[in-house]
Amino acid sequence: MAAGEELTLSGHIQHHLTNAKMCTVDGSVAFNKACSEAGFWTWHIDTLAWSIGLGLLFLWIFRSAAKSATTGVPGKFQCFIEMVVEFVAANVKDTFHGKSALIAPLALTIFVWVFLMNLMDLIPVDFLPAFAGFVGEQAFGMDSHDVYMKIVPTTDINLTAALAIGVFLLMIGYSVKIKGVIGFIKELTLHPFSSSNLVVQILLIPFNLLLETIALVAKPFSLALRLFGNLYAGELIFILIGAVGLLQLPLHFIWAVFHILVIVLQAFVFMMLTIVYLSMASSDNH
Amino acid sequence: MNLNATLLGELIAFAVFVLFCMKFVWPPLINAIEARQKKIADGLAASDRAEKDLALAQDKAKDQLKDAKAQAAEIIEQAKKREAKMIDEAVHKANAERENILAQAKAELEAERNRLREELRKQVAALAVAGAEKILQRSIDEAAHSDILEKLVQEL
């Protein structure tokens, strides 16, 4: 951003939508604009810090409930935690019909973690970036416009893609584990078109492989892009609302109330689709 | 929208979180929930059973009360009968005793009367002999009539 652009609306929005970056340039650590040429080896430190912080918060809350969990009369805190756990367990039980020690904790982690990260969207958009800018200016002598702070990790495609890739790897793993490598390859090549004639069958294999691969790869893509798109758009609208003067107060309220639904729903959808995809991966009947 | 190393970091973080959740968070919570569910189910079953037991016990108690009442009535009835019988027996016994005593007294009386009569007769005989002696002393020689007199005395 050049100095002239900083006061414009698009400059303001651009500033809000830029991650804080860290990379190494010529053997030393560099930040933000200095990283524009760093390519792949750039770290979004705000995304990493907020997401890992919220993940640790989730684990700490649930671990402390688990440590003091009693089979007798539960306290209010334990009741609340158990409500969440039972909700996830019921969804897993309804959808995933195999036996797996991984699916339910995975679903719980995704649901609560994604929810907490989405929840950051409800913090007014200028609070934390402005605070970070103030700290950067006072403590490190930086130009506050050079301090970036994107506090909603789910608006970063890197995070949603990481989640989706994690799920995708598990899908592959479950497919291979349940059906074997041969079974998995058969599933990719012999469906949906099949023929009793061997020659026709062999001719159909490329089509089947193309279709099934697209269907398989579309799953992580849709997972990553759905969450990212919803939260990015929501964040963008918050930023736009924040730029319209006093009128923003009622508008912000309405959008925030609506967004409460969105953030829970998106966390739930991500969790449900994960369970469904893993259930499909580990079921044999095609 | 540019993918970079953040993705790798998040992937590792995701894996670590899921593993931690799987090892240390999920099992204790779900175990506690399931154990409590079992406890509650057991409690409900036990309360159902207790309700049934209570109804049974109430029926039993009712029956026993009825039996006890019947028994009590029977015992009272028997006691009344025995009382009547005992009174009857006592009356009979007393009557018999009276008869006995009466009969004994009569017998004693009879014996006394017989004894007295015998004595009286003896005395009358002696008296008669004495009288006859006195009369005869004048008219008969004692020696001549001694055999008759002796006979007489022996007859008396």
Explained architecture:
The complex is a heterodimer of chains A (286) and B (156). With 286 residues, chain A is mostly helical. Chain A is 67% helix and 4% strand. Chain A has one domain. Chain A has a three-stranded antiparallel sheet. In chain A, a hairpin with a 2-residue loop joins strand 1 and strand 2. The radius of gyration of chain A is 23 Å and the shape is globular. Chain B is built from two helices and no strands. Chain B has one domain. The interface between A and B is large, with 47 and 32 residues.
Task: Describe the protein's topology.
The complex is a heterodimer of chains A (286) and B (156).
Chain A (H helix, E strand, L loop, with lengths): L8 H8 L4 E5 L2 E4 L11 E2 H23 L8 H20 L7 H17 L7 H14 L16 H33 L8 H44 L6 H34 L5
Chain B lengths: L5 H134 L2 H14 L1
In short:
The complex is a heterodimer of chains A (286) and B (156). With 286 residues, chain A is mainly alpha-helical.
List the keywords.
heterodimer; A: 286 residues; mainly alpha; 3-stranded antiparallel β-sheet; 8 helices; disordered N terminus; B: 156 residues; 0% strand
Helix percent of chain B reads over 70%
- Strands of chain A, count: 3
Largest sheet entry of chain A: 3 strands, antiparallel
The percent range for strand residues of chain A is under 5%
User: What is the general shape of chain A?
Assistant: globular
How many structural domains of chain A?
1
Strand order of the largest sheet of chain A: 2-1-3
Q: Which protein chains are joined by the largest interface, and how many residues does each one contribute?
A: A-B, 47 and 32 residues
Our count of helices of chain B gives 2
The total beta strand count of chain B reads 0
User: Domains counted in the coordinates of chain B: how many?
Assistant: 1
Low-pLDDT segments of chain A: 1-6
Globular, elongated, flat, extended or rod-shaped: what is the shape of chain B?
A: rod-shaped
First-last Cα distance of chain B: 176 Å
Kindly provide the radius of gyration of chain B, computed on alpha-carbon positions and rounded to a whole number of angstroms.
62 Å
